Amino acid sequence: MGIADVVRATVALCAFLLVLALASSAAAQAGMNDPPPPIETPAVPTPSPTPAPDPASDEAPEPEEEPTKREETVPEEDEEASSDRIQYRDPLDIEQVPVKLKWNNFISGLRGITQYSFFDNKLRFRLGGRFQADGTLINPASQLEQTFGDMSNGLDFRRFRIFGEGIIHKMYFRIEFDFAADAGFKSFYFEGREGGLEIWGQLLGKFRYGLFQEPFSLEQNMSTFDTTFVEVSMPITAIAPGSNIGAMVYDASKNRRFTWAVGAFSWGRETSDNASTSLLSLTGRFGFQPVKRNAEGSVFHLGLSFSSRSPTSDKQRYEARPEARFVPPFADTGDFPGNTNLLFGLEAAWKKDRVWAQAEFIRSNVEAGDDSAHFGGAVIQVGYFLTEFTRPWDNLFGVWGRVRPPQSYSWGNPFKEKSGGLWEVAGRWSTVDLNDGAIQGGAVRDLTFGVNWYPNSTSKFQFNWINSRVEDLGTANIWVLRYQFAVK
């Protein structure tokens, strides 16, 4: 064998090994998990005379295979990365997805991480949040500013709440905490899902216990995220009780024309929405619809509330803001003695088609030995929807429900009905009198005009102009613009 023959044999062997290596690499990159079978390296042939290739042979030598082209990929998990095989994507190579679809995917994902179920569905709950942001402008009379101090404009969170609600076996529960101006727990209660409180085999109604709103007043028992105006009316916030610890039985008749709620409460807290503390309170509210609802959904409701209270520390105090949270109280009794306090409230509500109205009267009779004091107030509210809609009525609790537009706002001119959303205009007149004998807390009368826009079931924009007149001190004009977000 000549030197040329040895060289040719060596080149052929190297080419054969190179083809096998490339084929194995291509198979691995294609996702083959099984390693290729072992390759037996052929022994180098013993040098012997090799005949020259027959030029007359019909068999032409096979062309040498081209190496398989490697596709650069991102390494799999637990696979060692190699800089010569990683292909990085262009960070600007972003797939085009409609914004609406992205938003829907975000909402779907958000619901997924806020809803939970455990123990074969025996424990189910969801987490949520809601907030109200207020911008307040005020123009008071000089005498008012001299009496109550500087009244500055501002932008603040009125409410910023996190809540959880769910079901544990046969019980419903809810807990809510506010991080804004009136920070603290707003509710934390349990309620039976089935049946209720029974005495001698008679079902009295649904049973609730914990921290929750006492059953007094129509407006006070509505969610603060469902009210037409930015604040509950002045006489109600000044005198009516708020959330306290206790137990309550409530229900409605089968035809829902009668509603009732009665509870016992203690450990009263003195907060902005809770007029005074009480060691023991018995509170109740009753509603009646003298005219049955017709096909158009019209409603006529009459109600009565009462509360017997025993003030703690022999003290009471009433104060009234001009229906704007970030304005100081325009009427304040200061602390005054009181052994017992009887509250009475009358209410009425009516709606037909786009129009609705409600009125309330409230009175407080405080006894301190042989002395007594009487305070009270009244409010009238009316509203009208500019688009075809009727305000919902909750005939189990006897209150107005949340306004949910039948069609969400879909861009375009928001003042056109076809664009979706709802527009509402409303007016309110309210008065409170905290003067009686030696107690001169003041008397205030408010006249309010409001415009609401509901773009969808979770958002609401509110604008209120309030003309507040304080007896003997002058008038203040207040403008409040609010944006509200509340989950469904």
Detail the topology: elements first, then pairings.
Layout: H1 3-29, H2 99-114, E1 115-118, E2 123-140, H3 142-148, E3 154-168, E4 171-178, E5 184-192, E6 197-199, E7 202-213, H4 234-239, E8 243-252, E9 258-266, E10 280-288, E11 299-309, E12 319-320, E13 331-332, E14 340-352, E15 355-368, E16 371-385, E17 393-394, E18 399-400, E19 422-436, E20 439-454, E21 459-470, E22 474-486
Antiparallel strand pairs: 1-2, 2-3, 2-22, 3-4, 4-5, 5-7, 6-7, 7-8, 8-9, 9-10, 10-11, 11-14, 12-13, 14-15, 15-16, 16-19, 17-18, 19-20, 20-21, 21-22
Can you walk me through this structure?
This protein folds into two domains: 1-48 and 66-76, no CATH class; 132-486, Porin, CATH 2.40.160.10. The strands form three sheets. A 16-stranded antiparallel β-barrel has the order 2-3-4-5-7-8-9-10-11-14-15-16-19-20-21-22. A two-stranded antiparallel sheet has the order 12-13. A two-stranded antiparallel ribbon has the order 17-18. It has 488 residues and is mainly beta. It starts with a helix and ends with a strand. It has four helices and 22 strands. Strand 21 (459-470) and strand 22 (474-486) form a beta hairpin.
Beta-strand portion reads: 35-45%
Number of strands: 22
Shape verdict: globular
Instruction: Quickly give the CATH architecture of the largest domain.
Output: Beta Barrel
Radius of gyration: 38 Å
Helix content: 10-25%
Describe the strand arrangement of the main beta sheet, using strand numbers.
2-3-4-5-7-8-9-10-11-14-15-16-19-20-21-22
Which structural class do you get from the secondary structure elements?
mainly beta
- Mind telling me the CATH superfamily name of the largest domain? Porin
Q: Which CATH top level class of the largest domain fits? A: Mainly Beta
Q: What is the average per-residue confidence, as pLDDT, rounded to a whole number?
A: 83
**Terminus-to-terminus distance:** 91 Å
Any low-confidence stretches, pLDDT <50, length ≥5?
21-37
Oligomer: single chain
> How many DSSP H or I helices?
4
Main pleated-sheet profile = 16 strands, antiparallel, barrel
The CATH topology of the largest domain turns out to be Porin
Give helix and strand order, one letter per element, not per position. Answer: HHEEHEEEEEHEEEEEEEEEEEEEEE
